[in-house]
Amino acid sequence: MSVAFGAWYIVWRWSESLNYHALWFSVPLLVAETGAFLGLVLFMVNLWSAEGPPPQSPPKQIGDCLESDIHPDRPLSVDVFFTTYSEDPELVRMGLKDAKRLEYPHEIDIRIYVLDDGRRDAMRMVAEQEGVGYLTRSDNIGFKAGNLRNALEMSSGDFVVICDADTRPFPTFLTETLGYFRDPRVAWVQTPQWFCDVPPGVPLHAVMRRWGRGVGERIGRGIEWLAGPIRIGEDPFANDPQMFFDVIQRRRNWANASFCCGAGSVHRREAVMEAALRQWADRVEAAAGTDERAARRLTGEAVLDASIRDALLWQGAVEEELTPYKFHVSEDLYTSIILHSDRERGWKSVLHPKVQSRMLSPNDLLSWTVQRFKYAGGTLDILLHDNPLFRPGLTLAQKAMYAMTFYSYLSPLWNVVFLAAPVIFLFTGVPPVSSYSLEFFLHIIPFLFLNEISQLVGMWGLSNAKGRAWHLAMFPLNLKALWTVVRGSQISFPVTPKERQSGNFPQLVRWQIAVVIATSAGLIWGWAAYGLGAAGYTLGAMIANTLWGGSNMLSMLPMIRAAFWQPDPVYELPVIEGAGK
Description:
With about 575 residues, this protein is an alpha/beta fold. The chain has helices spanning about 1-15, 25-45, 90-100, 120-130, 145-155, 175, 205-210, 215-225, 240-250, 270-300, 305-320, 330-340, 365-385, 395-410, 410-430, 440-460, 465-475, 475-485, 510-530, 540-565; strands at about 75-85, 110-115, 135, 160-165, 170, 185-190, 195, 200-205, 230, 265-270, 350, 355-360.
């Protein structure tokens, strides 16, 4: 119903409500609305089904995970990788201690490795003290993907668990995930990432108790009864990934399109290496073909001697890199696309619905910005240079799911219009629609209402309000990432700081502050013009643009607050030893 009424609204907007006296304003807004509606349709497709493979019992031997009847009768072997570069060795130590507590109901060979791209003596000492392997290399080619490649070359486990420096796996990690590999086509299993240091906040009624234990607390409880639980100071950076993993990723299981997110995932070595070899062979043949055509043009021969063609193939084999994990800033997403598009093997992915590890989140806006710019830039770089929508091998359902992921990073193109539109009207009195009439409200209100209800039902009651606010407020960051990719600049691979960066960061929210100031000034100007009876400032137009502009300002405020947020020592989480849930 939401999509149907949305389509009805968009068709009506194009056919009946354009302001032909201000097409410079009306058309860009309508294009933006249409773009946002297409994103809603893709989101609906993503939410359509919660079906997924049922959990299975942990395999006893490797033969339980292979398709061939001829297999060795031996226990499973698992390599647990902790990738690190500059993080505190003591932080990594906590994860190593947890990894040594991994449980499994059958005999299993578990080997734990520290993958230190920083080549630090202190990190080597921690690995030796904990009795785990220490792997490093002489360079940092390929960043994290290169680090993983080096480790794969120096290990031999049937399965590989990927952990970041701050990952703390639960003892049940392998018991919960390895059962999916009974299907010999499952290439990897991703578990939800849980940021255990997200500030829990304080209930609204407890905050309002300061205004009076009687009246204040009752008012707070009344608001919570109407609006649901409200916690002041909760998750100031919108880090909680529950919506992403529990809803978006999990709802992709039916389409075999949930993608790897790095930490907290377990991979079948055979799948990763085979896909890498297949890609490597294709690149070698392509390079040899290019060189052969150049040689024929140079020599004038129609056909080259077989020995020359073999030499060209050998040269290509020497020059091309074998990359089990794609050398890219978004190596996890890119590798997922490569594996999903291998129709000959039909590799599958699974999002396991239960949290099996915990890790740390960015606790200041600078660290958060570094991380999110890397996500946005890496995703857009794949879209521009190796668009999965045109990649052979992916099913239509998989392309639709990946389309939603990539399309969401194009949203700043229309979000900028949504932020500017009410400001333009409030200062000029020029409406972007033919009129803010009853007909306009009869078309838009049912759509907006049904959209809220459908998302409430489709997301199992999880609130998306905070996510939507941050999504809108991220427009400068995402525009910068888009411009960086379009102009051909390389997206760097900075390590997201694991410790809080001191200070405030007003420079990171200057555009959001500008939106609040411009909209506030516009509201003052617009209502003054309405009071004076200025042309164009009708009551319907003022109500619509006041609500619209007010919503925009409220969406900017969480990020602005985050720039000045300081942790409350009363609610800071202590470092917890072990793997407590």
